[in-house]
């Protein structure tokens, strides 16, 4: 049967329940991507409206637009909303807009509604959080509201799914309405605004007064307007003596004048209006000058304990499964190059990826719980003053904590910091937060040199060292922000202003979904790189220039003469690796990394990990499985433990070398994707290059100092 | 000069004690006033100082009993009270 495709956009204040409604409408049929031309994350999903008798079904695409308080953007993300709603030619321009409103704060939520409605897009008001409103002694009369606003008003509970089917029905009815009712503007232009609008409308063939007005106010934010158009609009502003700042304030006041009587007719208060009891009670503890920080510190400690100690059980299992699979494959396949490629190249690479899934899943689940519950906003408040001392913003806490997962999405979340200066500093220091890609490296190296003993009967010693490394990353981030703020001039004052949502139980579906998404993107995005590098490394380590490898092999055999066959095999393998492309590469950079305590083998891994840090462990696995006894399948940790320093004969991975490597990875900017995202977000090579040089120097210096002190 | 003195002595949200209420009269900064208006701080609404973050800044105010807003002190100083 023929199908009709339509688009619906979700618009609403932050915390009004927009994302929850999005999930309720689309279920799991959603995907994330970017809005065309801009680097703002776009969440879209679909649902289906069954057609009335004889009519085809309608496939509805829902786009979740960034949360905003008005159509005048305060941050980079928010510019997307008007870029779409003011441009009917935009591929995401909706047929219907659903404005999600928090019923417990209707007056403010209706500001955005009246603005969007004036743009002339067919609108539906979804009245959410009625339960919160009623706990605040407020009752909202939706019928009265619909009459006053002249649009469908649907009572919903996005969390329980109540009213969702009615909302879908309303979308259908709005679409089926043959003729559009004449638009009643909530804002009536005053004075010479009328002539200005008239002229803009004629010039650009616009059929809506308010869109014309937005051409005047926001043309610099509109990606669809060419430079000559912008210049022309500037001359019009000049001609009419249009004062934008004055207009914005008076428009907003005029809108509230319209909204106030509507709200007083449709919202009735019974008793004193007050925020929910638990929100006030919890705030008195979580914002407390002592308990606030104690709680935050405890929350952080639990996170690190969880990703290190609790995740070790599933990780051990995955590790065993990988080792078993490699052994089994090795037996099952005929000996030869292909066998070697599959076991030591491909399977070793896959093993290096899946082993870290438990940690990433747990971390993302916990961060998601903190955001969902409303606690993250409190953390921003108690951290703002501290962050400001380093030139940052309370909002920098979210990128910094997300940086513990991955710097790439973390740097993208800085777009919510509306002060450009504080945003830049946050971008520059976020890669210092230890991301999950560093976790594998930390895990392996800590396991090598730190005993797994219990401290105070609960905290694992290895967990504490790991915690220490994360703290070091944080200290490095804050210290660097402070240092950079001394050199980068500040042009504008900072800005905080943050609405505090009421506390809510996390929706487990959301937590699960965000966990699933992060694991998926790790496996697909990072996994691809790890896989590719695993195979490239296997090639580089298995082949050498000319016949240098076979020459080395012959030389070793003739030197060793009558030694036992096993010893000869090990020596041959090691000599072959040393003369392969990879080995020569490692030797080439050895002089530079020798002062840090690294040999050429670590050098190979170091270089490979510039593509992505997690590659380090996979590379080590490849290098040492080739260099070691090929009959034994050992896990990476055991291989590293058995590795001997060829000069001294003692263990290669001494505490000095391990700690030096740990220091290097805490500070180094070893990630191509991060450099790319900083380039994109700062619009140029200046900042990513400054960041790269600065972080590499910091890493080298700390690793050097550590090795020299400990050895 | 006189006007300036009046400005200085005007009661703002910063001069509230914890738990104390006030009614918004006007804003002294145009840029900031638009942001505050859009976030629902309207002249005539009642505000209450609910919490002061550790180190005295930022503060949390309750606006009209409806919701809680956190502001830095320099942002709160823009809101004059009746």
From TrEMBL, chain A:
The chain crosses the membrane at residues 290-311, 346-370, 390-412, 424-451, 463-488, 522-541, 662-680, 692-710. It is a multi-pass membrane protein. Residues 5-177 form the FeoB-type G domain. It is found in: Cell inner membrane; Cell membrane. GTP binds at residues 12-19, 37-41, 64-67, 128-131. PROSITE patterns: G_FEOB. Mg(2+) binds at residues 23-24, 26-27. Its main location: membrane. Gene3D superfamilies: P-loop containing nucleotide triphosphate hydrolases. Keywords: Cell membrane, GTP-binding, Ion transport, Iron, Iron transport, Magnesium, Membrane, Metal-binding, Nucleotide-binding, Transmembrane, Transmembrane helix, Transport. The keyword Oxidoreductase does not apply. GO terms for molecular function: ferrous iron transmembrane transporter activity; GTP binding; metal ion binding. InterPro entries: Fe2_transport_prot-B (IPR003373), Fe2_transport_prot_B_C (IPR011640), FeoB_GTPase (IPR050860), G_FEOB_dom (IPR030389), Gate_dom (IPR011642), GTP-bd (IPR006073), P-loop_NTPase (IPR027417), Small_GTP-bd (IPR005225). GO terms for cellular component: plasma membrane. Pfam families: FeoB_C, FeoB_N, Gate. It comes from the Bacteria. Belongs to the TRAFAC class TrmE-Era-EngA-EngB-Septin-like GTPase superfamily. FeoB GTPase (TC 9.A.8) family. Probable transporter of a GTP-driven Fe(2+) uptake system. This is Ferrous iron transport protein B. It comes from Dyadobacter sediminis. The gene is feoB.
């Amino acid at each position: 049967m023929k199908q009709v495709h339509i688009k619906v956009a979700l618009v609403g204040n932050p915390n009004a329940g927009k994302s929850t409604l999005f999930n309720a409408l689309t279920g799991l049929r959603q995907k994330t991507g970017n809005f065309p031309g801009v680097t703002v994350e776009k969440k879209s999903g679909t649902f289906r409206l069954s057609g009335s008798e004889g009519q085809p079904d309608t496939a509805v695409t829902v786009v979740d637009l960034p949360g905003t308080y008005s159509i005048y953007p305060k941050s980079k993300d928010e510019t997307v909303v008007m870029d779409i709603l003011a441009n009917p030619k935009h591929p995401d321009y909706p047929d219907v807009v659903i404005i999600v409103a928090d019923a417990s704060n209707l007056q403010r939520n209706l500001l955005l509604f009246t603005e969007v409605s004036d743009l002339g897009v067919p609108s539906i008001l979804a009245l959410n959080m009625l339960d919160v409103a009623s706990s605040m002694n407020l009752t909202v009369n939706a019928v009265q509201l619909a009459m006053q606003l002249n649009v469908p008003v649907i009572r919903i509970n996005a969390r329980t799914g109540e009213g969702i089917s009615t909302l879908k029905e309303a979308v259908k009815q709005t679409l089926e309405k043959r003729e559009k009712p004449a638009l009643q503007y909530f804002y009536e232009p005053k004075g010479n605004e009328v002539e200005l609008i008239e002229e803009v409308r004629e010039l650009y063939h616009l059929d809506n007064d308010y869109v014309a007005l937005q051409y005047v106010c926001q043309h610099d934010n509109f990606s669809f307007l060419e430079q000559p158009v912008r210049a022309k609009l500037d001359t019009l502003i000049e001609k009419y003596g249009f004062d934008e700042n004055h207009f914005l304030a008076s428009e907003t006041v005029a809108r509230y004048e319209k909204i106030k009587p509507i709200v007083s007719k449709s919202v009735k208060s019974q008793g004193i209006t007050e925020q929910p009891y638990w929100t006030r009670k919890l705030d008195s503890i979580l914002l407390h000058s002592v308990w606030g920080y104690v709680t935050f510190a405890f929350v952080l400690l639990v996170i690190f304990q969880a990703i290190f100690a609790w995740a070790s059980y599933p990780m051990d299992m995955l590790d065993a499964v990988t080792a078993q699979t490699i052994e089994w494959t090795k037996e099952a396949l005929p000996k030869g190059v292909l066998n070697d490629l599959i076991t030591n190249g491909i399977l070793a690479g896959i093993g290096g990826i899946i082993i870290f899934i438990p940690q990433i899943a747990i971390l993302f689940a916990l961060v998601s719980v903190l955001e969902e519950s409303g606690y993250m906003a409190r953390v921003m408040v108690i951290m703002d003053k501290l962050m400001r001392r380093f030139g940052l913003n309370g909002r920098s806490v979210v990128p910094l904590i997300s940086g513990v997962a991955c710097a790439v999405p973390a740097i993208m979340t800085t777009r919510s910091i509306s002060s450009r200066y504080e945003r830049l500093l946050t971008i520059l220091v976020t890669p210092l937060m230890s991301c999950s890609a560093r976790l594998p490296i930390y895990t392996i190296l800590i396991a090598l040199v730190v005993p797994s003993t219990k401290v105070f009967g609960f905290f694992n010693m290895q967990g504490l060292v790991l915690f220490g490394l994360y703290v070091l990353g944080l200290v490095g981030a804050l210290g660097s922000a402070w240092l950079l703020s001394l050199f980068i001039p500040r042009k504008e004052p900072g800005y905080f202003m943050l609405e505090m949502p009421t506390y809510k139980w996390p929706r487990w579906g959301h937590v699960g979904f965000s966990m699933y998404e992060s694991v998926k993107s790790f496996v697909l995005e990072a996994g691809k790189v790890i896989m590719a590098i695993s195979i490239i490394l296997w090639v580089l380590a298995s082949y050498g220039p000319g016949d240098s490898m076979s020459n080395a092999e012959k030389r070793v055999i003739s030197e060793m003469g009558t030694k036992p066959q096993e010893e000869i095999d090990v020596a041959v393998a090691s000599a072959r690796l040393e003369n392969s492309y990879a080995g020569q590469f490692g030797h080439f950079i050895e002089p530079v990394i020798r002062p840090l305590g690294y040999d050429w083998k670590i050098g190979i891994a170091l270089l490979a990990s510039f593509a992505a840090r997690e590659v380090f462990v996979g590379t080590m696995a490849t290098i040492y499985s080739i260099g070691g006894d090929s009959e034994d399948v050992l896990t990476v940790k055991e291989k590293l433990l058995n590795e001997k320093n060829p000069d001294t004969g003692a263990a290669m991975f001494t505490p000095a070398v391990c700690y030096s490597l740990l220091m290097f990875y805490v500070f180094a900017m070893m990630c191509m994707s991060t450099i790319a995202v900083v380039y994109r977000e700062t619009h140029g090579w200046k900042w990513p290059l400054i960041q790269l040089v600065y972080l590499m120097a910091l890493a080298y210096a700390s690793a050097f100092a550590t090795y020299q002190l400990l050895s | 000069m006189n006007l300036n003195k009046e400005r200085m002595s005007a009661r703002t949200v910063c001069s509230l004690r914890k738990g104390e209420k006030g009614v918004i009269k006007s804003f002294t900064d145009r840029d900031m006033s638009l942001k505050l208006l859009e976030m629902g701080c309207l002249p005539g609404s009642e505000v209450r100082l609910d919490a002061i973050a550790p180190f005295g800044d930022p503060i949390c105010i309750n606006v009209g009993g409806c919701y809680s807003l956190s502001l830095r002190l320099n942002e709160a100083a823009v809101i004059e009270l009746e």
